Automatic annotation (TrEMBL):
Protein species of origin: Theobroma cacao (Cacao)
One function term, GO molecular function aspect: protein phosphatase inhibitor activity
CDD domains according to UniProt: PYR_PYL_RCAR_like
Gene name tied to this protein: LOC18588528
Classification lineage: Eukaryota, Viridiplantae, Streptophyta, Embryophyta, Tracheophyta
A Pfam family reported for this protein in Swiss-Prot or TrEMBL: Polyketide_cyc2
Name used for this protein in its record: Lachrymatory-factor synthase
Entry superkingdom: Eukaryota
Amino acid sequence: MANDQHQPKWEGKAFAELAGPKAEQVWPLLQDFFGLDKWFPTLTTCLPVEGVSGQPGCVRFCAGFKAPVNGSDEGTVNWTKQKLLSIDPSEMAFSYSIVDGNVGFNGYVSTVKVLPKEAGCDIDWKYEVEPVKGWTLKDLDFFIASGLQVMAQRMEAALRVFQASMDQ
């Protein structure tokens, strides 16, 4: 990315395979920018701050997620404000940045994409961030990858229930 005199940005990638659900079924669940709390583990709050969900420039407030390196301060609630930078429904992809928060994710930008496959789909999550104090890149990779796996499991379960209700 940009040449910087500081430490280089961390870059990472996670992906989850969904067996069964088609990309066209999973995309609407991810496209709901203000609905992340339905899927991401330990995230208790996802509220609109400004704009319309799914429109570039909209901002969501996310709180309550547990991070792997928080320490033992149980009274602190993690939170971030996240801005949708771009969305491309035809490519089933969107990018967002963290614009504020108390977790030290400075310069965080992420792109999430749903990739069709023969029997299901993959969710691909790429991210970059300035090095985070008290974290390692391995911590961040684990946090995002494990969160994405739970998201995929929750989406598969929700789509199975939906399909079962349609079959009745």
